[in-house]
Amino acid sequence: MEKEKHHIVPYRVYFYILLALITMTFMSIGLVHINLGGYSVLGALIFSTIKSTLVLTWFMHLKFDEPFLRIMVVFVILVFAALLFITYLDYFFR
Amino acid sequence: MQTAVPILHEVSYLEYKGKYKGLFSWILSTDHKRIGLMYMYAMMTFFLIGVMLGLAMKLELIAPGRTIMGPQTYNALFTVHGVIMIFMIVIPGLPAVFGNFMLPIMIGAKDVAFPKLNLLSWYIYMTGSILVICSVLFGNGIPDTGWTFYAPYSFKTGTNLLPAIFGAFVLGFASILTGLNFIVTIHRMRCPGMTWLKMPLFAWSLYGTAWIQLLATPVVGITLVLVALERIFGIGVFDPALGGDPVLYQHLFWIYSHPAVYVMILPAMGAISEIIPTFSQKHIFGYKAIVASTIAIAFVGYFVWGHHMFTSGMSGTAQYTFSILTFIVAIPSAIKVFNWISTMHKGSINPDIPFLWAISFIFVFMIGGFSGLVLGALATNVYVHDTAFVVAHFHFIVFGGVGFAFFGAIHYWYPKMFGRMYDKAWAKIGWAFFFVGFLTLYSPMFYLGMMGMPRRYYDYLPEFHAANILSTLGSWVMAFGLLIIIINLFRSAKNGAIAPMNPWNGKTLEWTVPSPPPTENFEDIPVYGEKDGPYEY
Description:
The complex is a heterodimer.
Chain A: H1 11-32, H2 39-59, H3 67-91
Helix pairs in contact in A: 1-2
Chain B: H1 24-27, H2 32-60, H3 71-90, H4 93-106, H5 115-137, H6 161-188, H7 201-233, H8 246-280, H9 287-300, H10 316-344, H11 353-376, H12 378-384, H13 388-418, H14 424-450, H15 465-495
């Protein structure tokens, strides 16, 4: 317990992240109106990845957590990315 | 090793009088051992239902044409048989029963990390199971899609599918919560001195399994929700008529359901890795290799789901990628088999009943594994896809693998769990009937599949008759063996001879506590010394 440190994140930072999340949500919606073919999914996934990274880092305090937990989260995201990549080996080459 | 001091003055978990009495002392208990047994009783009940459905299907197939049921009943039977056996028994099987009972004791802890969450998992499991049973008893006919709920038929069929889908969805939560509990327990509650590489292999297998439960189960959960939404609202994700893609359903379903095969088989391999060194009285050969292969199976198992879909119309690029990845996952499984055999080499073997189950596990698992390579290879898969060959392979792995390991595990840990010994002579007779019956039941299906008999049909061509008769006879022999095993275990729980603390000369921590264990397992938490390990013979 002594090792635990408390981090106070200013409300300003939370507000900027909220703005970023809302902006990117609108950008994801806007992406639907641009015809990128199969790559529109890639674009939407990039926005989602950035948004979830922001939520994990700041709202879920991963930035201040043990390195081990950060490594585990990165590992899980990489597994998820690999699953998507393999799935798209079907959709892009069908 | 500082072994745990037996707590002779404390009553066992079976006799413990807590806050509640009778049935409530069980269904409100947060003791991991009682929860493990509650899972076991529930699963054995569901298992017997599943077995009876299987026997009815085999009876139908004893002759071509209609024998005891029509096609719709047959479709319903293989669906419910599959859902019960897969979602309610084999996936939760070893982790829920033996993981719950043994894991804390094996790592020197007094309970799992979240005992109340553990009890909640059992309630969720029971709720999901009852929903599945409700789909059979109520509504407009028994589900007939097969346990895979494939689109688009799953939202076209008029049968009572929604409770079955919702039941499988709810069962997933029990799996996720148990996985979470085990991960935290293993990370935080190992006894002092028990480093990662001194942990028993069964605990390692539960660790690898728990990560799959945690990461893969949500995928099938959301997929089943999408099927329900498709069925109710016609949202058009999987329905080709609405612009959806039914092959996407197969991708999402197998992204979970192939790793789920490793949720089934990894703990089974873990139990075998405990039995073989104990009955060979020898240090396990290649401990680190077995640990690495456990993690490798759990990891690579995520990326091979497409071999279930070679004939679905998937792209060629995806097909050969999945085929190559499937061959890779065979390597760590083979490593384990080599290590088990090497452990037995020059060991002082005691061919007692758990050991017989373990070696028969290796035998049937090898057949299942090699036939899996036939299905993993793209060219041969296309030839035998959706034939009886797949049913044979699947049952050799899932029933032969997990079932044999489950019976091996129960005969191995029974004295610890109930404090009684079973009748060894009857146990061996039961095993012999079961083993011979199993091979007679499923081996002909390899031949039938190669000859072109499709799976999931209540009828067949006359040239398949002889092999089908043999297979049905096998099912009766196996059921007779199963009956002997269950009666023997059931009777011995009350009337068996008192079991000693360590009847098999095992070296893991569960053999250092009384049989049956006291409520809190250990009075003093054991401490591992530098030279101590779980298999130091």
